[in-house]
Amino acid sequence: MKSTFISREHNDVKFTLEFSAEEFEKAVIKAYQANKGKFSVDGFRKGKAPRTLIERHYGEDVFFEDAINDLFSQNYFNALDELNINVVDRPNADFSEIKKGEGFTVTITVTAYPEFEVKDYKGVEIAKVENAVTDEDVDKELEALQKRNARMVLAERAAKEGDTVLIDYAGFVGEEQFEGGTAERQPLKLGSNTFIPGFEEQLIGCSAGEEKDVKVTFPEEYHSEDLSGKEAVFKCKIHEVKEEELPELNDEFAKDVSEFDTLEELKKDKKEKLEKSAQERAVNEMKNAVLEKIYEANDIEIPQVMIEDEIDGMIQEFDQQLRYQGMSLDQYFQYLGKEPKDFREELREDATKKTKTRMLISAIADAEKLEAPQEDIDKEFELMAAQYKMEVEQIKSMLGSDNFALLEKDIKMRKAVDFAYDNAVIK
């Protein structure tokens, strides 16, 4: 087989594969051996008829298609390597006239990965980002810790916002009780906005043992068409009113909720963790600012197929998120009255930016010859094992060998982002 590069216009590459008569004949013999059992010829058991008789009976080109497919599949990717072509789409193949005993030529047109040289990725000027941590931030952390360790106690008073009430309720539209609108001893935190708008507010001021008619109007976009937009009355009975009792912030509290002996030690630890998190956020913001500047400085003609693939991936990820919430993509489109093609167009700009940014980061990694040595890969496995509380070998087995290359590429990409950030001018 001989491969010959013809031309490249923008991202469309054209080249040829030339197969000799000898190569074609060997492929036809191979196709005959593999398929002869499929043909029936009078006087011969299936699989025993000579090739010449099968060709005479079914046509001399009977084995051509399988032979051509075999030659193409065996040699196409070798030709890509030989000609140094990185494709991003399926090829279009145009075959010359194919005759018995003669060679043939395949002219291939395929979309290739763009050729470009990333520029202006060193010395990018960005503004310094500083996220200060205040005493108020630390106090909020401690308050959240208090709330997580609060206990619910009976309140001998009327309910107020933030309390949890234990209620029975039955819902009516007119005189008719509707399905799904009844519950007994249902806990409800007032102010949580988990019930129909206007419901929770009407229970504020109610006490244990009291009965209350709660009047509401169902939203127009309510999931049940029978109830959407309708007025309803919920007959409620309040059994209990409970409030959060927060533990006192003192040394005993610190001992109960942490490994520290004093409240001051706990505060110091919270502040250090907040400062570390704030610094990480600041660095990530500055890295994103660097990437944005590099994005603006480089103009790349991106093949549409790459953008379409990115949109496909974004839709697939969104579909998975919806399924976790118990909704399908079709239901989502129906609920919003949206067409799938319109949804794709809404994603196009973001998909284009993601694709181009990824290409630029990869180009920086190549330009700086960044590598992912085995020690980096091993460290990544150790981090994943710690995160998922598994053994390293289990993680490797779950990923499989096919994903090792993706992990290696991911490490290089992160190094490229770090390189651009480390070489930025921060003002």
TrEMBL record:
Keyword Cell membrane among UniProt keywords: no
Top EC class, one word: isomerase
GO molecular function: peptidyl-prolyl cis-trans isomerase activity; protein folding chaperone; ribosome binding
EC number(s) given by UniProt: 5.2.1.8
Pfam family, one: Trigger_N
PPIase FKBP-type domain: residues covered: 162-250
Cleavable signal peptide: none
Alphabetical UniProt keywords: Cell cycle, Cell division, Chaperone, Cytoplasm, Isomerase, Rotamase
BP term (GO), one: protein transport
InterPro entries: PPIase_dom_sf, PPIase_FKBP_dom, Trig_fac, Trigger_fac_C, Trigger_fac_C_sf, Trigger_fac_ribosome-bd_bac, Trigger_fac_ribosome-bd_sf, Trigger_fact/SurA_dom_sf
Catalytic activity: [protein]-peptidylproline (omega=180) = [protein]-peptidylproline (omega=0)
Compartments reported by the entry: Cytoplasm
Gene3D superfamilies registered for this protein in UniProt: 3.10.50.40, Trigger factor ribosome-binding domain, Trigger factor, C-terminal domain
Cellular component GO terms, alphabetical: cytoplasm
Family as reported in the entry's similarity comment: Belongs to the FKBP-type PPIase family. Tig subfamily.
Domain remark from Swiss-Prot or TrEMBL: Consists of 3 domains; the N-terminus binds the ribosome, the middle domain has PPIase activity, while the C-terminus has intrinsic chaperone activity on its own.
Function: Involved in protein export. Acts as a chaperone by maintaining the newly synthesized protein in an open conformation. Functions as a peptidyl-prolyl cis-trans isomerase.
Protein name: Trigger factor
Gene responsible for this protein: tig
